Amino acid sequence: MLFRAPAQFAFRQLGIYKSGLMLVLEHFTNLIPFIALTVSLPGIRLKRRLVRLGLGLAVLAVVHFILIVAVSAVYNTYALSPTAYKYMFPLLTVNDALPLVLWFLLFSEEIIAMFRVKKRDAAVEPTL
């Protein structure tokens, strides 16, 4: 919803008056999982977390705009034919998976550190 007015303005500037904006609006909920994953990750300083959260949200916003343009181009070319869905489905799937991929890319060190097994002191016990 946040990008509806800027997207419609950009479309008019590009000469696109019929867009598939309504086809992609429900896929813009991926901001919520990204924020939840970022906030729930333990052991990160606040400044570092906020910088990465801002970077991730900026990337998601750009991808949302690109998705609007791409789906609109497909929609204007193929309407709602099976061919249109053949092109739109991969775009929407990548968009829906992006929060998890982006979270892992931005926080890979912290995520890997969570799953590392800490070695105990190598005290050797005598065997009987």
Question: Short summary of the structure?
Answer:
By secondary structure, the protein is mainly α.
Main features:
128 residues; mainly alpha
Describe this structure in words.
There is one protein chain. This protein is mostly helical. 71% of the residues lie in helices and 0% in strands. It is elongated, with a radius of gyration of 21 Å. The termini are far apart.
Strands, total number: 0
User: What is the count of distinct domains?
Assistant: 1
Tell me, briefly, the overall form. elongated
Approximately how much beta-strand content do the residues carry?
Answer: under 5%
Largest pleated sheet: none
Strands, helices and their partners?
Layout: H1 4-14, H2 21-24, H3 31-40, H4 46-78, H5 82-106, H6 108-115
Helix pairs in contact: 3-4, 3-5, 4-5
